[in-house]
Structure formats: structure tokens, C-alpha cells
Design brief:
Layout (H helix, E strand, L loop, with lengths): L1 E5 L16 H8 L1 H16 L3 E5 L10 H16 L4 E4 L19 E3 L5 E6 L5 E6 L23 E7 L16 H5 L5 E5 L5 E5 L2 E4 L15 E8 L2 E8 L4 E8 L6 H11 L7 E8 L5 H5 L2 H11 L6 E8 L10 H14 L2 H8 L6 H9 L3 H20 L1
Parallel strand pairs: 1-2, 2-3, 3-4, 6-7, 7-8, 8-10, 13-14, 14-15
Antiparallel strand pairs: 1-11, 5-6, 9-10, 11-12
Helix pairs in contact: 2-3
The protein binds manganese (II) ion (MN).
The site of manganese (II) ion has 7 residues, from loops.
């Protein structure tokens, strides 16, 4: 037996924050979530898998784009043509009241309802597979639903599909919280998780697996993305991560402080970009010294590259941001102040403080989701440093 586990397709993701780029490039980026799922369907057909699991967040938003719905229907129809069943659940992004089998989708697609339920599948060789899951009916599920998942029955394999996050004391736990012990107590053979966008195994016996999203959507979703191809070996299910060649988010550090001319600055940055066949969206982190600092701060260095690359017929990298390295944030402070700053950073940038700061956003669920899903203390720390650094500049003026 073999199957594919994916989740978090986020079809039609808006890729906010990427502005002023050539139309062709923007189209390629916008199409990347679609392209990633098409590649997964290609793989399912080529591998002749027994079924495909999609654990939530198929669509980026509650209001599904027509293009995304059409595209998804086309792709699962290709699977239908090859007699490959699909099990899907909706997640916190594409939650749906009264979820269930959908007459607009081909007959091979089983959509889990809002209550936990189990669906059985008999493979050609007689193997019986049970798949248990549920769809979000609203944006948040604060309850731990794992108690509603039945213990493995008299089937050959049982798989749980769960779009959710590990229970963490002191945080909101709005995404169907669960603990590993609870999942393990069900005696399932595999847990196909969704919601966290970085692929990872939370446990290996049985595999409790986040597939991650097949295409990273912003700089905090860098690294390799793909899906899991799972096969049986003896009495175990073994997940194998398969990378997709989508658009990548890279951070490139470059030292410009020794550059003698603007031409050398240009060359130093080009040399630092590692060539790749895949389109790279690049954040350049520049050490400038005082000489080239203003080129970064006033945006002219970024404009230079974007203008230049816009005129190329085909490009495989695009700088979307150029930032200064951390060391230059607080040039006016003494060493004593640096120590103090570092200590303060440790005290201030904690999960607890972040939770307190964003608590008022609970009233604005989409904003709250943005912060909790993409929380990055290091990023906030860096931005705070840059703001304080700017304050220092003004004081000197
Ligand atoms: Mn998601």
C-alpha cells in the first residue's frame, strides 16, 4: 500500500507584501501554490498511489476564489480518471459549515463533515484502510477533539487526519489542540497532520507527521517544501519526504563595507546569490559600514536591482527586500548599553509577552491568526532593533 499525505495547499494565496514586480514574475509567484498541487497530483498518478490525503487549508480563505475551486476540481478529476480516492478535510483557513461530500467534486473525493467520522476503503488486494477525520466548521476549534477519534478497529490500517496544533499551556490553543500521548493512545498506524507549514515528524512510532505546505508563501516559510509519500513495510507505515521544486525564499548575507564603488556593491550582491534553477525570492541582509548604509535605507539599492532585473527577459532571482545586518542597529550605544540591550531582548521577547501583546487582536480573528501562525520572535526583535536604531539617528540630527 502507498499513499500521499499533503495539507495546507493554500490555493490562491495572495502573496502580500511583494510589490512592484514585472507581471510575468508576479504570475509565476501567484501560480506557485497551484503548480505545487499539480505536481503532487502528477506524482500520485505516476506512483499509482492507493489514495491521497489532504488535511485542511486547501484554500487560503473562507471565501474561496473561483479559479482555485475550478483548479482543484480539475486536479482531483485527474485522480478520479486514475481511480485514486481522495480524503480531504477543511481547516481553519477554509472552514466550512455543513462540510461533507460535495456534488461539485468527482465521486472519488470524500469530504469529512464537521463531526469526527471514519471512512473505510477496500483496496484491490483486499486490504482494509480506515481514515478518521473532521472538517472545521468555524475558524477556531478550542476543544480537544481527539477523544472523539475511535481507537483503531479491526482494519488493516487506520489513519487519523487532524488539522491542528500541539496543546501548549498558556497560549490560545484555537486549532483543535492535541497531545502526542492522546494520538498514540488510538493505536493508529499514521497521523496525517495539517496546520503547521514546516514539514516534520512529531513522532515516528507511529508516524505523527506534519506534511507542511507544498509551497512556502512568505519569508518565514523558507526551506524545502513538498509532501510525504507513505508506504507499508511489514506492519508499519513509513513516510518519505518528497521535495517539490517550487519558488524558494532565501536570505542572503553580504558584506559591502569594503566596496569601493557602486559597481562593486552591485557585483558583491550578484556574487552572493547562489545560482538555482528554481526562482528565488531573496532578502538581502547587508553589512554596509557607514559608506553604503544610505543606499539600503533610502531603498535606492533595492530599486536598482529591481529595475535592472525587470528588464531581463528571464530571471531566476528577485530581491524583495534589502535590510541592514543587526550589528549596525545601535551604532551610538556603548558596550555597556549593548549588554543591557541584549539582556532586555531576552526579557522582553518571550512567548508570554507576545501572547499578551496580541491578545486584543482576538476580536479581529484574521489578524490574530496572522500573528499566531507566523509568529517569529526573532523577526520582531530585529524590527524593534531597527526602529530603535532609527530613533538614535534622529537624536543625533
Ligand atoms: Mn495552513
Amino acid at each position: 500500500m502507498k499513499f500521499i499525505h499533503t495539507a495546507d495547499l493554500h490555493l490562491a494565496s495572495p502573496f502580500q507584501g511583494l510589490t512592484s514586480m514585472p507581471d510575468q514574475l508576479w504570475k509565476q509567484i501567484y501560480n506557485s501554490t497551484f503548480a505545487a498541487f499539480r505536481q503532487i497530483v502528477d506524482a500520485a498518478i505516476a506512483q499509482q498511489v492507493d489514495f491521497v490525503l489532504i488535511t485542511g487549508d486547501i484554500y487560503d480563505g473562507e471565501r474561496k476564489s473561483i479559479a482555485a475551486v475550478d483548479f482543484f476540481r480539475q486536479q482531483v478529476s485527474r485522480l478520479n480518471d486514475h481511480h485514486i480516492p481522495v480524503f480531504l478535510s477543511y481547516g481553519n483557513h477554509d472552514f466550512q459549515k455543513n462540510a461533507g461530500d460535495d456534488p461539485n467534486l468527482p465521486a472519488n473525493v470524500h469530504v469529512f463533515g464537521n463531526q469526527v467520522s471514519t471512512s473505510q476503503l477496500k483496496l484491490a488486494d483486499g486490504t482494509i484502510v480506515a481514515v478518521t477525520g473532521f472538517s472545521y466548521g468555524q475558524r477556531w476549534i478550542d476543544d480537544d477533539l481527539t477523544s472523539q477519534f475511535p481507537v483503531k478497529g479491526t482494519v488493516d490500517w487506520q489513519i487519523g487526519m487532524l488539522h491542528g496544533a500541539l496543546y501548549q499551556a498558556g497560549t490560545g490553543n484555537h486549532y483543535a489542540p492535541f497531545t502526542l500521548d492522546e494520538l498514540k493512545s488510538k493505536n493508529y498506524d499514521y497521523w496525517a497532520l495539517g496546520h503547521i507549514h514546516k514539514h516534520q515528524l512529531l513522532a515516528s512510532e507511529p508516524p505523527i507527521v506534519y506534511s507542511g505546505n507544498p509551497q512556502g508563501r512568505h519569508k518565514n516559510e523558507g526551506g524545502v517544501h513538498g509532501y510525504y509519500l507513505v508506504h507499508d513495510e511489514g506492519n508499519k507505515l513509513v513516510p518519505e519526504f518528497k521535495a517539490l521544486n517550487g519558488i524558494t525564499w532565501e536570505q542572503v548575507a553580504v558584506d559591502l563595507s569594503e566596496c569601493g564603488s557602486e559597481n562593486e556593491v552591485d557585483q558583491a550582491i550578484r556574487t552572493a546569490i547562489i545560482p538555482s534553477k528554481q526562482l528565488q525570492l531573496v532578502e538581502i541582509v547587508a553589512t554596509t559600514g557607514s559608506k553604503w548604509r544610505s543606499l539600503v535605507e533610502d531603498g535606492s539599492l533595492l530599486d536598482h536591482f529591481q529595475d535592472e532585473l525587470s528588464r531581463q527577459p528571464a530571471i531566476n532571482w528577485w530581491p524583495y527586500q534589502i535590510n541592514l545586518t543587526g550589528g549596525q542597529k545601535l551604532p551610538e550605544l556603548t558596550n555597556l548599553d549593548q549588554d543591557y540591550w541584549q539582556q532586555a531582548e531576552q526579557d522582553v521577547f518571550t512567548d508570554e509577552n507576545l501572547a499578551a501583546v496580541i491578545k486584543p487582536l482576538l476580536k479581529h480573528a484574521p489578524l490574530y491568526d496572522q500573528f499566531t501562525e507566523h509568529r517569529d520572535l526573532g523577526e520582531y526583535q530585529k524590527l524593534a532593533g531597527q526602529l530603535l536604531g532609527k530613533r538614535g539617528d534622529h537624536d543625533e540630527d
